[in-house]
Structure formats: structure tokens, C-alpha cells
Amino acid sequence: MSSQINWKGIPPNAGTKNQYADASLLVLRVAVAAIMMFAHGADKLVNFGDKVAVFPDPLGLGATASLILSVFAEFFCSLAVGFGFLTRLATIPLIITMLVAAFVVHGGDPWRDKELAIMYFIIYLVILLAGPGRFSIDRMVFQKNGEG
Questions:
Q1: Neighbours of 120 (CB within 10 A)
Q2: How crowded is the C-beta side of 17, counted as CA atoms within 13 Å?
Q3: Residue 128 β-bridge partners
Q4: Which of 130, 141, 97 is nearest to 26 (CA)?
Q5: pLDDT digit string (tens) for the chain, length 148 residues
Q6: From CA 122, how far away is CA 54, in angstroms rounded?
Q7: Which of 14, 24, 78, 115 could bridge 36 with an S-S bond, Cβ 3.0-4.6 Å?
Q8: CB 83 within 8 Å of CB 90
């Protein structure tokens, strides 16, 4: 028997601990993806023509390119994260977008204006490090011999 016991007294190799972790990752991925997509990305995508004239250009790429990159991350990468498809790769543009939002766009603003972007950054970093979990397209597509 393993010297590590979880809160229910079940050895970690019993599979229960991993099921909770995988379910937690599923909830985290789907929730953060839906919130990012519908609260931020969808509006930019649907109103692209109106937004491009007033969108910030924090990195000097031009407002159009900045908006395209923002829509790509906030809508399309969020969609991928939500489904658990190319999850770790999809978190990278989201992480970059949140760091730019927090420290470039809101660089001189009070903490409260940076807080949301930093919270999203932390969540995407956790997903990048932990991976998508068992309940994901990545697991179905890239699983090797029953291992994940």
C-alpha cells in the first residue's frame, strides 16, 4: 500500500483521485472558455468592423492586427480549450493576450483594472501546466495504448 493516502483514505493509485482531478479540469476548462468567449471574444468577432477603429494597438502591430490576434485568442483558442483540443498549444495565445492586457494595455492603471486579466492568466497557466485531463479531445485523439 502506498504511503500517500487521499482525504477518503483511498490510495492514489486507485483511480479516484485522478477522476476528481480530470473532472475539475473539465469544469475549469469549459467554464473559463465559455466566459472568455462570450464575455470578450464573441463581441469582438461580431462587431469587428466597429471595434477596429477604436481598438488599442499595444504592441505597435496596428489596430487591425491587434484585434485579429485578440479575437483569435479570446474566441477561437477559448473554443479549443473548452473542448480540450490542442489544449496546451491553445493556452499560449491566451496567456500572451492576458499578459499584454494586464501589463501593457492596463500597465499604468490601478490594480483593479489588471486583476481580471491576471486571474485569466493564472487559470490558463494552470491549464497549460496540468493539461486538459481525461475528458478532452486531446485524450481521445492523442492517447497511446490506454495511457494518457
A1: 23
A2: 11
A3: none
A4: 130
A5: 445 644 555 455 555 568 889 999 999 999 999 999 999 999 999 999 999 999 999 999 999 999 999 999 999 999 999 999 999 999 999 999 999 999 999 999 999 999 999 999 999 999 999 999 999 999 999 876 444 4
A6: 28
A7: 78
A8: no
Distance CA 119, CA 28 (A): 13
SS3 sequence, the chain?
CCCCCCCCCCCHHHCHHHHHHHHHHHHHHHHHHHHHHHHHHHHHHHCHHHHHCCCCCCCCCCHHHHHHHHHHHHHHHHHHHHHCCCHHHHHHHHHHHHHHHHHHHCCCCCHHHHHHHHHHHHHHHHHHHHCCCCCCHHHHHHCECCEC
Letter for the amino acid at 146? G
- 144 forms beta bridges with 147
